[in-house]
Amino acid sequence: MKPNQHTGFSPINSGYNRVFKRGKLSVGLVVPIENYDNASIPSMQRHIERVQLAEELGFSAVWLRDIPFNVPSFGDAGQLYDPFVYLGALALQTRQIALGVSSVILPLRHPSHIAKAAATADQLSQGRLILGIASGDRPEEYPAHNTAFESRGERFRESYEYIRAMATTSPTINNSFGHLHGHIEMLPKPVSDQIPMLITGTSQQSRDWIAENTNGWITYPRAENIQRQLIEKYRSLSRAANLLEKPVMEPLYIDLLSDDNASPTPIHLGLRLGIKHLRKYLKTRRDIGVNHIALNLRFNRLDPETTIQKLANELLPDL
Questions:
Q1: What is the pTM of this model?
Q2: How many other C-beta atoms can be found within 10 angstroms of the C-beta atom of residue 278?
Q3: Residues 316, 28: contact at Cβ < 8 Å?
Q4: For the chain, what percent of residues have pLDDT higher than 70?
Q5: Distance CA 311, CA 315 (A)
Q6: Alpha-carbon distance 82 to 64, whole Å?
Q7: How far is the C-alpha of 90 from the C-alpha of 172, rounded, in Å?
Q8: Every domain of the chain and the residues it spans
Q9: pLDDT one-digit tens code per residue, 28-81
Q10: Is the bond leading into 83 cis (omega within 30 degrees of zero)?
Q11: CB 155 within 8 A of CB 111
Q12: pLDDT on residue 6
């Protein structure tokens, strides 16, 4: 597949093409769009309306998470709802905003179910699905699924291969998840020839495997010089394999302060800061090769509607 002249990356579906453009930075939001820093469980109040507002204001994507169990030590139940059921609801309540999952825990779900649910969400949204994938980082969930935490790396690869096969006509696959011999197939198919799949972290895989197989990389925020080096290494591996460069996404928790000039201070996987320093941070990330930032407002103390309106007014036009 040739790169799209407008994106610089190989086009996949409308959601992926909207969010990821080479040399550009887009901004999305993690749902639920609310503050719940004093508890692990959000209220989910006005959750659909806030996603619709984010779309109206020009954010490029919203992101759901796959959290099978509320693990007390983890301390965050995410959006509560199953991501694929929720994707179906959002697909019918929005028109153009990309719908992402960051990320589906591949070892804990059967890949036939993931493939069918993802293709369904992609069809219902007319090609707006972006599927983050991960091996999982909460050991407590594995015994509940009768699955060994230590085997998650191998199961991740086998699940990935199974999902890719399911998008083809008359699929064949033979691994621990099952056997297909070309006599049956999954319907529906994705809108395009595949579902875009972005790996989170390394998910127990080699960097060569990551560069060669997936459609992008989701990596946690780090110091600028370290992040720059990691992004360059990731893309150099793609070039070494004679592949086109692929996009990079970074999630970021923020607490946007009313003082626009407030200097940044660290919070969990993010920053407490004023809008001017956030703008500077985003532009720096763009310059080192990040293509999308997903802002998480869990620790944000300003009113959610006020916050996303301010973000849209003062950041999106510059990016």
A1: 0.95
A2: 24
A3: no
A4: 98
A5: 5
A6: 9
A7: 32
A8: 14-318
A9: 999 999 999 988 999 999 999 999 999 999 999 999 999 999 999 888 999 999
A10: no
A11: no
A12: 47
